[in-house]
Design goal:
It is a single chain. About 40% of the residues are buried. The longest helix is centred in the first third of the chain and has 20 residues. The protein is mainly β. α5 runs antiparallel to α6. The radius of gyration is 33 Å and the shape is globular. A hairpin with a 2-residue loop joins β36 and β37.
């Protein structure tokens, strides 16, 4: 009897379990806090791929087992997991996610709820670049924030990048934004490891940046690094990559090149350099592909280990990063080592302590522009790469007058090594008064820079040269904050008062030598030489700042923010040391008004406006003091005597450049946070512009820095962030931004124009390549307007200039029948008119696909690389590019490629070689897969990924890369020239991420 009862119970339980395991149709409705149906809620059967989305009324329907659980999730709401328990109807009410609604962002010297921010601020989430193999901060910022233009001007690993927030304000000064890392003001963005970043905020308008006073005119990038959390976690990420040049120039093959050379020689009446047999051999055997000898497939690897943990009181994070990249140009590369430690301790409920330490070491080797890349398009394909002795061919008899491209790769070393240490610690104490706290922070930043250069025997005509530059920089910072945060009924007040000091010291030393006796020892044996020079310098400046800000809100819908900062700098003379930078901003959250709530459309609708002043110390220390220089002078035919002469005169009346900015913005949020739109209009004017003004010889000569001139930047910014599709287990998140910029010089203090040169083009430039002129933007190209070739019906007019049909035809502005510098004019603009980015993330099950585009529009580039290879004059001597096939000749008189004539005179500084540098680039495509935790018994997390960078570039630019340029990031008056620029690479990466 007992056995029968037991068997009956077992069968009953099995039947019950079987019934619960049966799949049945489950329906229901998802509502929000107001009991209204929520559309687009993701409903998924836990542990499976079965899922659906609620319809416009919040209803859903799917198949699920009776013992299953349903997972409900939607942006802006707290997710829920609900057991089915055999039911056929499951209704759920989701609560608003207060964490999302009260998202906190970092602003200058504090934090704010995003909904309370009255200034123009862009936050970049780590989710936006988590799927991409970024190695530097500029790669993180590029294309992800409206109003922020990032150009990787040097595509070499560890190469230079130009970052601008809402244009450029200064001629003499640096227009890079200010970087603040964990409260340290003035950090070097090159030392920031993206894997250590927790949050990034970009402050753009004056209401946001004026809190940084004399340093905020170019925008502020605030970075907070990751902290530890309770428990112990270990994470490893490894990446391995290969890279290649995006595009190469189309050049003539050896046989065709020889034919072109002979055709030119025939046209000008000189002897033929190549015989018929030689041309036949070149066509049969080929020649030298110089681009293949210069470029290679680069390789790279990156490894990151992060250890974090802690308890209820103390947390820690330790991370180490190693990056090693070999460039796409032979014998070039970059290495970087990073170590970071962050410790946070809550000593008691009132007192907390933090300590951040990081160290870095970077090594650049031969990552400069020019050299080998230029000569690869100048040396003739008919010239062998190596001679009979096995050494690179020393001279090119027909092509370039310079050295073999291989010598620029292997007979020189250009190394730039940097080592940095930062110690940043602080304490925070909550005072007995409610809402009042004090924060004290101290930071020490140390940087050691070494620039090491060597030119061997071949490049130096058997007089090897070397130089070493060494610099030590120490920055000390103390920041003392008094914070007040209180809410009284409908009123909320947040205030901060700060006293901050900063001191910077630089000591450097340079030694250079020629005629090295043992060049094989390189720059490590400068002492063994025939001639040497040494130099050293010292700089020091200090900054004392007092600042205050108050944020006031009424009923969370009427917002006011006001700030003022007073800076005092040792760079200025008495009477001009101090300046005040105020700002005010207003915000109105219309979505909190009853008449807007009744529309049931907006989750957030905010109108904001701001005005403020920021400044710039766009000059070095001691600029107010007259300088002296050493000189050698001979008296009465005697030997030269050393002496001292007056250098550039100082100007004790120098003062801050001042930028005033107005901003109007609108923020909108719809569909429970699934769609967010933000738009801004800004206008900023920089006055008291610092310029170097020429001094007449009778007054001592040279130049003097003066406060003259004005620059204006204005534009529109637009961004849209949304989740267009949530369907079952599929999710699409997108972020689109677009911005316009109009930059122009308003005044030069009475000067009609001011030339700005680069020295990049050497003999290719007739005069300064850029011109500052009122009404024109910075970076305006100065050159001749190319009208094509003289045509047969223009023979008489051409003859007046000593030309014949087929010769280059340039616009004669003054009509004197002679092409001179008087005929130069503005021919183009290097400042982009618009930039944009579009980031998309698609997820399904454990798969994640990221597709990221960025674009630059309305920008010109002066392509000196192409000019040198297509001008047939100067250093290159012959035509290398395949474009020459279309040269002007009988039967091809419509061509605008000049003919081979005795009167041929090209000008490379002309619109002929000015190209449209606009582009749209598929910056990144990555696919990752996260292994289900159940597969590995919940012991670890595993993610594998593959990505392609710079996979596709749509552009009219004829060079390898429309983004790269020869001029560095420290100037905005002379930019955009491509002359042997190191191009960005197309890169493929495989990686794995392990978490324990």
């Amino acid at each position: 009897m007992k056995k029968t009862v037991k068997l009956f119970v077992i069968l009953l339980l099995l039947g019950h379990s079987y019934a619960f395991a049966q799949t049945a149709r489950v329906t229901g409705k998802v509502t929000g806090p107001d009991n209204q149906g929520l559309p687009g809620v993701n409903v998924q059967v836990s542990g499976t791929t079965t899922g659906t989305s609620s319809d416009a009324s919040g209803n859903f329907s799917l198949n699920a087992a009776g013992n299953a659980s349903l997972v409900f999730s939607n942006i802006g709401y707290v997710g829920q997991t609900v057991p089915v328990n055999g039911r056929s109807v499951v209704n759920v009410q989701l609560a608003e996610d207060q964490k999302t609604l009260n998202e906190v962002v970092v602003v200058g010297y504090g934090t704010q709820r995003k909904t309370d921010v009255t200034g123009a601020l862009t936050a970049i989430s780590t989710k936006e670049f988590a799927q991409q193999p970024v190695t530097r901060l500029d790669q993180v910022l590029q294309g992800r924030a409206a109003g922020v233009q990032v150009s990787q001007t040097n595509g070499a690993p560890g190469g230079d990048a130009r970052i601008r927030v809402r244009g450029a304000n200064s001629v003499l000064g640096n227009n890079n934004p200010l970087y603040v890392v964990d409260g340290f003001v003035g950090a070097d963005f090159n030392f920031v490891n993206p894997s250590d970043i927790e949050t990034i905020q970009i402050l753009k308008d004056a209401a946001s940046t004026s809190i940084y006073g004399s340093r905020g005119a170019n925008g502020v990038v605030i970075i907070t690094t990751k902290k530890g959390a309770k428990g112990l976690k270990v994470n490893y990420e490894g990446q391995f990559s290969t890279s290649e040049v995006i595009k190469r120039y189309d050049v003539l093959q050896a046989g065709e090149f020889a034919e072109i050379v002979n055709a030119r020689a025939t046209a000008v009446g000189s002897g033929l350099p190549f015989t018929t047999d030689q041309i036949a051999q070149f066509k049969q055997n080929g020649g030298t592909d110089w681009q293949s000898l210069v470029f290679r497939n680069g390789t790279g690897q990156q490894h990151q280990i992060t250890l974090s943990g802690g308890n209820d009181k103390t947390t820690f994070l330790v991370s180490g990063n190693y990056l090693n990249q070999n460039g796409i140009v032979n014998n070039s590369g970059f290495k970087r080592y990073n170590l970071r430690t962050n410790i946070n301790t809550q000593i008691n409920d009132k007192l907390s302590f933090r300590l951040n330490l990081w160290g870095t070491r970077s090594q650049n080797h031969n990552t400069l522009d020019g050299g080998a890349i230029v000569q690869a398009l100048a040396w003739a394909p008919t010239t062998p790469a190596y001679g009979a002795d096995g050494q690179p061919t020393f001279t090119d008899p027909i092509g370039s007058v310079y050295r073999n491209p291989l010598d620029y790769l292997y007979d020189q070393s250009v190394d730039a090594n940097k080592s940095g240490i930062n110690i940043n610690g602080g304490i925070n104490y909550k005072l007995p008064i409610k809402g009042l706290s004090i924060d004290l922070q101290y930071a020490v930043n140390y940087l050691n820079a070494q620039n090491l250069n060597l030119n061997g025997k071949r490049l130096s005509n058997n007089v090897p040269t070397a130089s070493r530059y060494s610099a030590e920089q120490v920055t000390l910072q103390n920041t003392n904050n008094l914070n007040y945060d209180v809410k009284l009924g409908n009123h909320s007040i947040t205030a901060v008062a700060v006293l901050e000091t900063q001191q910077f010291t630089n000591r450097d030393f340079t030694a250079s030598a020629s005629g090295l006796r043992f060049p094989q020892l390189g720059y490590d044996n400068i002492g063994g030489n025939t001639a040497a020079t040494v130099a050293s310098s010292y700089q020091k400046w200090t900054l004392l700042s007092l600042l205050g800000r108050i944020n006031y809100g009424y009923k969370d819908k009427y917002l006011v923010s006001a700030a003022v900062r007073r800076d005092g700098s040792s760079k200025f003379a008495a009477g001009n040391k101090y300046s005040v930078f105020p700002s005010v901003a207003l915000g109105w959250r219309l979505s909190e008004e009853e008449f807007i709530k009744k529309l049931n459309v907006f989750n957030n609708l905010k109108l904001r406006g701001s005005w403020g002043m920021t400044g710039s110390q766009a000059l070095g220390p001691y600029s107010t003091i007259s300088a002296y220089s050493s000189a050698q002078v001979a008296f009465n035919n005697t030997a030269a005597t050393s002496g001292v002469i007056l250098g550039n005169p100082g100007n004790p009346d120098l003062k801050w450049e001042t930028t005033k900015q107005v901003d109007v913005g609108l923020e909108m949020e719809f569909l429970n946070g699934r769609l967010r739109i933000e738009a801004d209009y800004f206008k900023k004017n920089t006055s008291d512009l610092l310029l170097n003004v020429a001094i007449p010889s009778y007054a001592g000569g040279g130049t003097q820095a003066r406060n003259v001139g004005e620059i204006e930047n204005k534009g529109v910014e637009f961004s849209i962030v949304g989740t267009p599709l949530v369907l079952g287990g599929f999710r699409w998140e997108t972020n689109l931004n677009f911005s316009t910029l109009q930059n122009r010089v308003i005044s030069l203090g009475g000067l009609p124009r001011l030339g700005q040169g680069t020295g990049v083009g050497a003999g290719m430039s007739t005069t300064n390549e850029f011109m500052l002129m009122p009404g024109e933007p910075l970076g305006s190209y100065w050159g001749l307007n190319y009208l094509g070739t003289w045509k047969p019906n223009e023979a008489d007019q051409a003859a007046k200039q000593g030309r014949v049909p087929g010769d280059p035809h340039y616009q004669d502005l003054n009509g004197d029948n002679s092409i001179t510098t008087d005929d130069f004019q503005i021919i183009g603009r290097a400042f982009p008119k618009a930039t944009g980015g579009w980031n998309n993330t698609f997820t399904y099950k454990g798969l994640t696909l990221n597709v990221f585009f960025n674009g630059v529009f309305g920008v010109d580039k002066l392509n000196y690389t192409r000019a040198a290879a297509l001008s047939g004059s100067g250093d290159a001597r012959q035509f290398i590019l395949a474009e020459i096939r279309d040269y002007y000749r009988p039967g091809n008189e419509t061509s605008n490629v000049p003919a081979f004539t005795k009167t041929y005179q090209p000008f490379t500084q002309s619109s002929r070689f000015l190209e449209d540098g606009s582009f749209v680039r598929l910056k990144n495509v990555s696919l990752s897969y996260t292994v289900p935790t159940g597969f590995i018994h919940n012991k670890a997390s595993i993610r594998v990924f593959a990505s392609a960078t710079n996979l596709l570039t749509i552009t009219k630019y004829k060079g390898p890369d429309p983004e790269s340029a020869r001029v560095g990031s420290n100037t905005d008056t002379a930019i955009g020239i491509d002359y042997g620029s190191y191009p960005n690479a197309k890169q493929y990466t495989l990686g794995i991420n392990l978490g324990f």
